[in-house]
Specification:
Layout (H helix, E strand, L loop, with lengths): L24 E6 L8 H9 L3 H4 L2 E6 L5 H10 L3 E5 L3 H10 L2 E4 L9 H8 L4 E4 L2 H7 L7 E2 L4 H16 L12 H11 L1
Parallel strand pairs: 1-2, 1-4, 2-3, 4-5, 5-6
Length: about 190
Amino acid sequence: ILMDENILHTPINSVFKRNINTSLLNILIPRRLVNRTGILEFLKNCSTFPEEVKKNINLLIVGSGYLENKIKTQSEKFFFVNFLGTVNQNDLNYLYAACDVCCMPSKDAEGFGVSLLEALFRGTPVIYTRGGGMGDFLDSFQYKFGYEFNDKTKLLNIIKMCLNLKKIGKLNSDPTKIPYQFRKNIELIIK
């Protein structure tokens, strides 16, 4: 695996800085905008959340694909959703670090993707659907934010748990953060 040393640098500013609201739970969704990733269903599930939850979350959708127009239209219906489209790597690095959690919904079992590695490298916890390599791996972490794809009650409970963890300072969003162990591991890979 070839890695660019610039991945160790997180810009402290980004054109998307205005999309981060530190008083809300910022949830980054970096996905290909295709059917198998389940983003339309994820948005539909989130739209059923109680108003108290919706007014405290900020979903930031990043990506491109054949569902881009549908997702953009859906995101315009919901005040808690920001569709950012395709972003460059520096801005994506910023968003991974600045957001409180990353969400990777999927209809089908998925392997172990680059988006997951980028989130973990930045120390950003991941909300994920179970199934495939991603779920198997993430189920071993401290925070088990996994849910079955159609289980909107479990998804709501995970979001509420994240809101509570943020409130007590356990989900720290800091665009300059790179957890020590991940930095050490990446530095070893680069050398």
